[in-house]
Design a protein that fits this description.
The protein contains seven helices and no strands. The longest helix has 43 residues. It is mostly helical.
């Protein structure tokens, strides 16, 4: 019985905390990728520079800092229009854009990119996991919104009832 109660409280906690299973990246890793890009731009081929920029974009959209996420989104949007993308690179960029928009709270935009990604790779587990996280988050936010609205209506109705009872 105790195990069931523990699982219940864990699921409620996950519901309200968001249960984000996407990895996070810290500023040390981001700084390392920035240094790698700078060095690659001086001494390496364009293809290697693009790989380094892709790694930096990954770290940025997985950052806890909103300004890093926005910078990662901007880098990816600039590179997604390049015609030299292979289907694999296009899929990766679309997925990272979906992650970036998810992390920035723009769930509808994130959903658009994850859907485009799933068109290219319908069985891709990471994209399917992100889609599920998006759906869960949207559902959770809707439930919380309904709860807030119901509370507000209850408070207003209670205030009106109290005002009417005082006049009598």
């Amino acid at each position: 019985m105790e195990e069931k109660v523990g699982k219940f409280f864990e699921s409620v906690g996950t519901f309200f905390s968001g249960g984000d299973t996407l990895p996070w990246c810290d500023s040390v890793v981001i700084a390392g990728c920035e240094a790698e890009v700078a060095e690659a731009q001086e001494h390496q081929t364009d293809e290697f520079v693009k790989e380094c920029i892709m790694r930096l974009s990954w770290t940025l959209v997985h950052s806890r800092r909103p300004e890093d996420v926005q910078r990662g989104i901007a880098m990816l949007e600039a590179s997604v229009t390049e015609n030299s993308n292979s289907p694999l690179q296009a899929r990766e960029k679309l997925y990272l854009l979906a992650v970036g928009y998810y992390r920035s709270g723009d769930f509808s935009r994130s959903r658009e990119f994850v859907e485009q990604c799933l068109i290219l790779a319908p069985d891709w587990r990471q994209a399917l996991t992100l889609k599920k996280a998006l759906e869960d988050r949207i559902t959770r936010d809707g439930v919380i919104g309904i709860g807030i609205a119901a509370t507000a209506v209850g408070l207003i109705a209670g205030g009106i009832a109290a005002a009417v009872s005082r006049k009598k």
